[in-house]
């Protein structure tokens, strides 16, 4: 099996002086990553129904994710308050919605009970000459207080030549004392809400300046629900053409994943959806069962780049990413 090239191996193709040292700073409720004193992102926990990374700062200082609901910025839509920059969640886990928030439903009683993904502790917070890493253990808490699932999120970011950002984001999901079923729903999973100026459909509901492309050759609205090894969403930020590519690791279960990529700026890899994205599939075809005490890992590479997918050579870069031979992944017993 050919598996993705590690981040530090990828960085080795550049000269060492080209990389900025990344510093991390822990504060109450967040961890900040900076390079040469410039903000890269912040990990936020404790102020929402799930943890998240906001903002994502790309080449030239471009703010590449929506600010709302964390901050009021003129011209931004106020839809989907759970779309918090970059996050990992799912809308149906043992019958509980961990994707939305109470605010998402307004005064209406949600059809599916809404849970929380809470920060428990840090596994690693470390800066370095090439990249910074934030690894955190989280618990998925149902409305009745039960914890069916824990996860470990590891986020590593480096600044490459030209101020391009390369992020490796890995999530290890650990079933607790009962089986866990990730239900077939489009509401998930590894997600980014892009900057409003990059949208395929503008906030005025007119065609926007953004564009979407995937590894299978689909573009724009045809990308939604399709399976692809990568998807790229590009458009202008502050007059500069930039893009975000997400690579679905070939080692991930159900690779290539389906994509919940919307014209209004949601951009998500969803390995737990079949029926809701392909009506020819039987009900529950996307259900994914994780036995009690077992774990499974999903890995993604995110590139914040200049230009569009062609200009950034995203297809060629995915080929390099997937070419390295690494030990195969496995479902494994979670240590006590």
Give the SSE string: HEEEEEEEEEEEEEEEEEEHE
Strand content: 35-45%
Number of strands: 19
The CATH class is Mainly Beta
Instruction: State the major sheet.
Output: 9 strands, antiparallel
Structural class: mainly beta
What is the subunit organization of this protein?
A: single chain
State the share of residues found in helices, binned by percent: under 10%
Q: Tell me the span between the first and last alpha carbons.
A: 30 Å
The domain count comes to 1
Q: Taking all residues together, what is the mean pLDDT?
A: 92
Output the CATH topology: Beta-galactosidase, Chain A, domain 5
Give the CA-based shape: globular
Please summarize what this structure is.
The chain has two helices and 19 strands. The chain has a single domain (7-333), classed as Beta-galactosidase, Chain A, domain 5, CATH 2.70.98. Mean pLDDT is 92; it is low at 12-17 and 326-332.
Explained architecture:
The protein has 336 residues and is mainly β. It has a single domain (7-333), classed as Beta-galactosidase, Chain A, domain 5 (Distorted Sandwich). The protein is 4% helix and 38% strand. It has helices at 7-11, 314-323, and strands at 22-27, 30-35, 38-44, 52-53, 86-90, 116-126, 131-141, 149-159, 165-175, 180-182, 188-193, 211-214, 230-237, 240-248, 258-261, 266-270, 288-290, 294-306, 332-333. Strands 6, 7, 8, 9, 12, 13, 14, 18 and 19 form a 9-stranded antiparallel beta sheet that branches. The protein has a 4-stranded antiparallel beta sheet with strand order 1-2-3-4, with no helix packed on it. The protein has a 4-stranded antiparallel beta sheet with strand order 5-11-16-15, with no helix packed on it. Residues 12-17 and 326-332 have low confidence and may be disordered.
